[in-house]
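Hi Prof. W.,

I finally got the Galactose-1-epimerase prediction working! I wasn't sure whether to trim anything, so I left the full sequence exactly as given:
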Amino acid sequence: TEPAVQFYTGNFLDGLGGKAGAVYERHHAFCLETQHFPDSINHDHFPTTILRPGETYQQSTEYRFSTL
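And this is what came out:
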Protein backbone atom coordinates (compact mmCIF):
# COMPACT_ATOMS: atom_id res chain seq x y z
CA THR A 1 0.00 0.00 0.00
CA GLU A 2 3.00 2.30 -0.21
CA PRO A 3 3.02 4.72 -3.15
CA ALA A 4 6.62 4.09 -4.24
CA VAL A 5 9.15 1.30 -4.55
CA GLN A 6 12.93 1.41 -4.20
CA PHE A 7 14.80 -1.09 -6.38
CA TYR A 8 18.39 -2.04 -5.72
CA THR A 9 20.67 -4.89 -6.65
CA GLY A 10 23.37 -7.06 -5.12
CA ASN A 11 26.11 -5.61 -7.32
CA PHE A 12 28.62 -5.69 -4.48
CA LEU A 13 27.99 -9.17 -3.09
CA ASP A 14 31.27 -11.02 -2.89
CA GLY A 15 30.62 -14.62 -1.93
CA LEU A 16 28.34 -14.09 1.07
CA GLY A 17 27.21 -17.42 2.50
CA GLY A 18 23.49 -18.19 2.64
CA LYS A 19 21.16 -21.00 3.60
CA ALA A 20 21.88 -24.58 2.56
CA GLY A 21 25.40 -23.68 1.46
CA ALA A 22 24.28 -21.12 -1.13
CA VAL A 23 26.90 -18.56 -2.08
CA TYR A 24 25.74 -15.12 -3.22
CA GLU A 25 28.00 -13.52 -5.77
CA ARG A 26 27.79 -10.25 -7.67
CA HIS A 27 24.38 -9.68 -9.34
CA HIS A 28 22.79 -12.66 -7.56
CA ALA A 29 20.14 -10.60 -5.76
CA PHE A 30 17.78 -7.67 -5.95
CA CYS A 31 15.42 -5.97 -3.54
CA LEU A 32 12.05 -4.26 -3.99
CA GLU A 33 11.46 -2.07 -0.94
CA THR A 34 8.11 -0.28 -0.67
CA GLN A 35 8.15 3.19 0.84
CA HIS A 36 6.70 6.68 0.72
CA PHE A 37 8.00 9.15 -1.82
CA PRO A 38 11.45 10.56 -0.94
CA ASP A 39 11.27 14.03 0.63
CA SER A 40 7.47 13.73 0.90
CA ILE A 41 7.37 15.75 4.12
CA ASN A 42 8.35 18.83 2.10
CA HIS A 43 5.68 18.42 -0.59
CA ASP A 44 2.05 19.13 0.32
CA HIS A 45 0.72 17.13 -2.64
CA PHE A 46 2.52 13.93 -1.53
CA PRO A 47 0.93 11.51 0.99
CA THR A 48 1.79 12.33 4.58
CA THR A 49 4.55 10.47 6.42
CA ILE A 50 3.72 11.89 9.85
CA LEU A 51 2.34 9.53 12.49
CA ARG A 52 0.86 11.37 15.46
CA PRO A 53 0.47 9.97 19.01
CA GLY A 54 -2.48 7.59 19.18
CA GLU A 55 -2.54 6.97 15.43
CA THR A 56 -1.73 3.58 13.99
CA TYR A 57 0.14 2.73 10.84
CA GLN A 58 -0.43 -0.40 8.82
CA GLN A 59 0.64 -1.33 5.33
CA SER A 60 0.95 -4.49 3.33
CA THR A 61 2.80 -5.39 0.19
CA GLU A 62 2.08 -8.33 -2.06
CA TYR A 63 4.49 -9.24 -4.83
CA ARG A 64 3.29 -11.37 -7.73
CA PHE A 65 5.74 -12.64 -10.30
CA SER A 66 5.12 -14.59 -13.45
CA THR A 67 6.96 -15.57 -16.58
CA LEU A 68 6.21 -14.27 -20.03
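The chain has one domain: 1-68. Does that look reasonable to you?

Thanks,
D.
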